[in-house]
Design goal:
The chain is α/β, with parallel strands linked by helices and 256 residues long. The chain is 45% helix and 13% strand. The mean pLDDT is 97.
């Protein structure tokens, strides 16, 4: 039976395609960009924070996929009040992501495809965790925004991937999930790597130059990092696990 699906989270849109259900998508957000060759033909129903609830209701989907961080609870409540079935998830680590993939696969009637992705996540996570055991932790910071400068704490998906590979978040103990920081703090904590994400703020090499000059830390400690691999959860997670390991491994090798 062909379903009608609306996805309000970019990583979940990508997952739907990788589960083989892309043709069932009736609506996605303006930020759903993968797979690039196929998302253009699907109706856009607003953004992740400002979806057109009325239009989604009119589309009469069998299922609306949402994420508790990317989307607003009031929009989920409005869709449910209109009689729509909402599947909302919020994985914060690889185990949670594997569970989410299985849950969405079951909801879409794609359990076998979901199980393959989930097992790949678990297999790669186990391998990376084993390889990191006994290795010296690498101190890192991950910046997601400029002016104000913002980082992540340990209650984030980014932290989970980098910690799995043997990294230690110098801002991990902050109470806020996405704390504002100062460059003076960054200089004092002196992480061995400062990862500058490509999203939501698109850091460029000139920002690494700026930060090195402002903090006095060596320029080579500032590395542009792919925000999609480190913060998208779903079918991109297996490669994200390997990508995070590569970042930590490179930092460890250069510090010897």
């Amino acid at each position: 039976m062909k379903r009608r699906i609306v996805s309000l989270c970019p990583s979940l849109t990508e997952l739907v395609f990788d589960l083989g259900a892309g043709e069932e998508l009736a609506g996605i957000t303006e930020w759903c960009v993968h797979p690039a060759a196929r998302v253009g033909a699907i109706e856009k129903v607003g953004g992740t924070k400002n979806p057109c609830v009325g239009r989604i209701v009119t589309l009469a989907p069998d299922l609306v996929l949402m994420n508790e961080e990317e989307n607003r609870v009031e929009d989920a409540q409005a869709l449910e009040a209109a009689g729509l079935r909402v599947h909302s998830s919020f994985p914060k680590d690889t185990d949670g992501t594997a569970e989410m993939v299985r849950s969405i696969g079951a909801a879409l009637g794609r359990a076998a495809a979901a199980e393959a992705i989930a097992k790949d996540i678990e297999r790669r996570a186990a391998r990376v965790r084993s390889a990191a055991a006994g290795q010296r932790e690498m101190g890192w910071a991950y910046l997601i925004w400029r002016q104000p400068w913002m980082s992540v704490n340990r209650d984030t998906f980014v932290d989970a991937l980098l910690a799995l590979a043997g990294g230690r978040n110098v801002f991990g103990a902050r109470a806020e999930r996405y704390p504002k920081i100062t460059l003076e703090e960054l200089a004092r904590l002196a992480p061995e790597r400062v990862f500058l994400c490509t999203e939501p703020f698109s850091f460029k090499p000139e920002h690494a130059d700026e930060l090195a000059q402002a903090t006095g830390l060596p320029r080579e400690r500032f590395v542009i990092a792919d925000g999609e691999y480190l913060s998208w959860h779903g079918s991109r997670t297996p490669d994200g696990i390997d990508y995070a390991e590569g970042l930590i491994r490179a930092a460890r090798a250069e510090s010897k």
